[in-house]
Design a protein that fits this description.
mainly alpha
């Protein structure tokens, strides 16, 4: 498998992870004030997931441009 294909596969997995983190954050917001103590943890997971996804997308764009 080429580097581009591997990166695309990784991006697909990260996208699913980010989508799940987004849904977890959404679900938490709908349940407030229940579990309000977990807001920061859930938000950090969502932030990390999207930051990682964005970095890999930039890596792919750079690789495809080379």
């Amino acid at each position: 498998m080429s580097d581009v294909e591997e990166l695309k596969a990784e991006i697909k997995k990260l996208s699913a992870k980010a989508t799940q983190a987004k849904m977890d954050l959404h679900d938490l917001s709908e349940e407030l004030p229940i579990s309000w103590e977990t807001i920061m943890d859930v938000a950090k997971r969502a932030h990390s997931a999207f930051a990682e996804l964005e970095k890999k997308r930039a890596d792919l764009k750079a690789l495809e441009a080379a």
